[in-house]
Inverse folding.
């Protein structure tokens, strides 16, 4: 058992190394963005993964299955979910559009762009209200372009980058028709939100296929463990564990590929990179 566990861990490490090498060659990231604080949900999923892995190890005696079950508890909600992430993304884009429209409507009555931004803080849309508040606070001790770039970094969305770029140009070169420009930027942001909703609806079949395949695989595996252990006896050997690890890696790669097919990749940001 110890040797099988050691070999399984070495195989998993080798597989992870291959994934990292391929990701580095493609220039892609395999890790999610680092959160600002640990969330209770993440800690709960970690404990649940450990518990499920321990139960699978006790029931089957297969370290590869235990490791796969623990990883599945953490990864499957992310792969099978996505609706909340989509709603948050669309709400953020629409909030940028609404805030831009507020600036457009306020700029005529305000005494300059900075006053318009300060006035918009009280009625800023909820998804970006905190960022707008910090932007207004930074205006007391930073130049407007620097404060706007910090605001773009905090919102961290290409739609905000376009608005911030327009505001920076307006503040440095005294744009003549700022209200018209802000209106066009707000319209572009709303068009992006609608496009995301259309794409999300169009990819519903892919997300459904991922859920159906995942459920069928899990039910089939659980059914074999509960009702036909004799069929699974070859997996208890060293070679069986190696083969099971290969099967798990193939299924994991397929699930990751299907998850990527259902995502909407945002364009690359450009305002944050210009900051010194």
């Amino acid at each position: 058992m110890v040797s099988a566990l050691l070999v399984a861990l070495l195989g998993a490490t080798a597989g992870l190394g291959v994934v990292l090498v391929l990701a580095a060659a493609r220039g892609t990231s395999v890790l999610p963005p680092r959160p600002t604080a640990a969330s209770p949900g993440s800690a709960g999923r970690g404990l649940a993964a450990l518990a499920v892995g321990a139960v699978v190890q006790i029931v089957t005696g297969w370290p590869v299955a235990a490791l796969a079950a623990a990883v599945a508890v953490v990864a499957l909600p992310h792969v099978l979910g996505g609706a909340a992430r989509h709603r948050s993304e669309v709400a953020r884009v629409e909030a940028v559009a609404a805030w831009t429209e507020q600036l457009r409507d306020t700029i005529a009555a305000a005494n300059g762009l900075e006053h318009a931004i300060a006035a918009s803080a009280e009625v800023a849309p909820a998804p970006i209200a905190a960022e707008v508040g910090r932007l207004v606070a930074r205006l007391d001790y930073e130049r407007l372009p620097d404060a706007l770039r910090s605001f773009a970094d905090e919102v961290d969305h290409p739609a905000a980058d376009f608005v911030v770029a327009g505001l920076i140009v307006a503040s440095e070169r005294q744009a003549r028709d700022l209200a018209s420009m802000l209106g066009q930027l707000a319209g572009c942001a709303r068009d992006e939100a609608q496009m995301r909703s259309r794409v999300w609806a169009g990819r519903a079949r892919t997300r459904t296929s991922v859920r159906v395949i995942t459920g069928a695989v899990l039910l089939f595996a659980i059914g074999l463990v509960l009702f036909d252990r004799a069929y699974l006896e070859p997996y208890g050997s060293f070679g069986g564990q190696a083969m099971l690890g290969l099967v798990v890696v193939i299924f994991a790669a397929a699930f990751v590929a299907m998850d990527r097919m259902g995502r909407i990749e945002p364009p690359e940001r450009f305002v944050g990179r210009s900051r010194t």
